[in-house]
Amino acid sequence: MKLGLMKTCLIATTALLMLGTAAQAQGVRENYEPVTDEMLLNPPAEEWLMWRGNYANQGYSELDQINKDNVAGLQLAWAWPMADVGIQETAPLVHDGVMFLQTNNNIVEALDAKTGDRIWQYRHVLPELPAAWGYQLNQARRQKNSIALYGDKVILTTVDAKIVVLNAADGTVAWEKQVLDYQVGYSYTIGPLIVKDKIISAISGCSIAGTAGGCFILAHDANTGEELWRFNTIDDPNNPAQQESWGEVPAENRWGGTPWATGAYDPETNVTFWGVGMPGPYAELIRGSGDGSVLYTNSTLALDADTGELKWYYQHLPRDNWDLDSPFERILVSQEVDGKMANMVVSVPGKNGIAFGLDRDTGKYLWSKETVQQNVVTGIDPDGTVHINEDLISTAVGEAHLICTSVSGGKLWMAGSYSPKTQTFFVPLTEACNTVAPTQTEFTAGNAVGAVKFGPRVLPEGITEAGLVQALSVSPTEGDSKWQARSRPSMTSSLLATAGDLVFGGDAGRFVKAWDQETGEVLWEQRLNAPIGGYPMTYELDGEQYLVIPTGYSNAASSISSAFPEIPLPTGTGNSIFVFKLPAAK
Amino acid sequence: MMLRGLMTGLALVVSLPAFAQVPPELLNNTRRQNGESITACFDTTATTLEFDREVARLIADSLFVDLQTRDGFGGFPIDGAGFMDELSIAMNNTCDLFMGISVQVNSQFPEWAAVSRPYASMPFVLAVDNPDWQSLADIPHDRKIGTALQSLGELVFITWAQQQPEAERWKRLPYANFELMLKRVQDQSLGGMLLWQPSLVKLQQTVPAARDVRIIDLAPVPAVDVHVGALVSSKDSFLRSQVDEAIDALVADGTITALMERYGYTGHAGE
């Protein structure tokens, strides 16, 4: 009876899908030029081939047609509404004149990058009876999964824990693979990194009861989908220090350790770099790990791209009790100093907003720099040992502490950018605090879905401007504040740095801005339809440089909007992209 | 009279506020046309799902309305991320009642939702394999105790432990998988396991080995009951009062007690 019903639902769903597909005109991009390994190693300046533009995750473009002398003249070229509502964190890609735009619910659209006309659309079909499957539905509306281009394919990771490979020419499915079991809670919420025929990505859902003991960075063959290696971020049998760091908690009782941002890759050493998030449960009082540092949560991991072997790790926040996770983008920076190359990983890895510089080859701590107001880290020794404020660790259920930054950052998913030209790291941040209290308050009786109680996000005392763009002058010895640009509303988008000496990004007040890389002066601003979001990027086509600005519904805006009530958020999501260019030369 | 009032109450549901983390397009702004029915929603992964279904039907019968049901809400993280989003959408668009809610003093439910009077109160129990132990106090302190993750029982256990000298505490490990916790009791990794009595009933129905463990006294840790109720929109005070009255009647006439006995649940009807 039950099976019969399921089958009927499935048939009905399939029928609806076919109707839906028939209603959409599906085009074909003839003679699509495949993306080669060489292109990924040295991305053409006029294209944007991967999440942050290059393997180093720099969010930087060599294009300079739009520059600080003419940016004030930018005009709208075209705009496009996204295919679905939801939280908007999209990362558009451009190759061979085609823009690949992923939106909520694992929808991918191919658009003509010059005109904005749609070529094809792919809508991922979720498994049957999705209503009983609340978490994945929730995550499906949070489109964080960037996509990847490789060969003549578009590669995406889905909320039902699949890798799906599309033909770039027409959006049809070439193959797909169920990587992990979505029914126990696994879900992809970040996109893939392509390295030499391998799809490297990381799974989410590691704080769900059924996924205890396993949170993975995985590599699959890009042609067959075969799994090549996996690395467990919370259970490393090869490292006794990692096991001891959880106290007496065995792997089967550990949660968390989700890598929430796509990794970087160093072709010189064949090493890929990933950030790892918080432990679960959040409070050590509940998780039973005592004063252990709970590795590899809140760490940077350096893994051999061929084998997944751990080369080194560095923990940015040990003993996390406040969901201040540290999974955000790791940026690879190389600088020549006194005739020698200094290879670094530079990042604001965690919500507490502290910037770090690490030696890329050894993981050795080089420097750190505080940005927004925070009260959890009390100091970092020259050897990189991070000290936390133990007074902020709850010793009783319900005991609340005011924690700065808040659970929404500080830093959040919005990525910073690094300009090799000015050797400056630009970071979007938000000033915020909230109270945190471990509270065992199961929602549905008998279920392991409880909560840490977070108070409302508020601005730190004495601060009236939530938004901050921090420019850090980076060297192997320090990250020095070059300038700060503050704004009343919170920052809601990633940043894009260009060779035109500009940094682009935007805020909850719907302003997209261009800052002068050297001074932080706002050289252009435009108010759009919704909070600026996603990952701004740029490309060049037929001799013209285009600037892409995503907008839409933003958790980074709504979670702290009560701190700037005079700037109302739109009541519609308005998920869109706006594409700007300079006026045609006369 | 009751029905007309109920329909008025249902109309008020549509005026729920916009919730911070949910795109507003997902919230219906239409007046529900339920007719003479109410919709009860369920967490499909709830321990007492079938019991809650029967209670919902009894409540609907008491109110002389038809019962519509909707399942969902499964699989959320242990920190509850996303749960309130989905619940707020469902309570705005679909559900008049959300059954099986844990009624607690420090409830996490926001102001747009109110909990009904509890229709059942069921205890946490300590289950052991060792025939010599009669209470937690008999278990040596060097043995670990498994606790149901994120549960009220775990809260009470932790709170009690924090009040004791370290030498008089038992080490505790949190479990979300009760079959695994049972396995660890039976392979002696754990001295005992603290879980909700309905969870133990469910385990005993699906895992034969679970029938080999027995319940002992939780002392010196205080006894703890989970009060189970329903969620109602706080805007719909009339429906809430009607549901409370229906629950009171079902408790008073022994209907809930009989239902609990049929399911093998201990504890008592009502609060």
TrEMBL record, chain A:
Signal peptide span: 1-25
UniProt keywords, alphabetically: Oxidoreductase, Signal
Gene Ontology terms for molecular function: oxidoreductase activity
InterPro entries assigned: PQQ_b-propeller_rpt, PQQ_rpt_dom, Quinoprotein_ADH-like_sf
CC cofactor: pyrroloquinoline quinone
Recorded superkingdom: Bacteria
Pfam family, one: PQQ
Boundaries of every Pyrrolo-quinoline quinone repeat domain copy: 48-369, 485-546
Family: Belongs to the bacterial PQQ dehydrogenase family.
Protein name: Alcohol dehydrogenase (Cytochrome c)
Species whose genome carries this gene: Devosia limi DSM 17137
Automatic annotation (TrEMBL), chain B:
Source organism: Devosia limi DSM 17137
Signal sequence residues: 1-20
Source organism superkingdom: Bacteria
Name of the protein in its database record: Polar amino acid transport system substrate-binding protein
Keywords: Signal
Native organism taxonomy: Bacteria, Pseudomonadati, Pseudomonadota, Alphaproteobacteria, Hyphomicrobiales
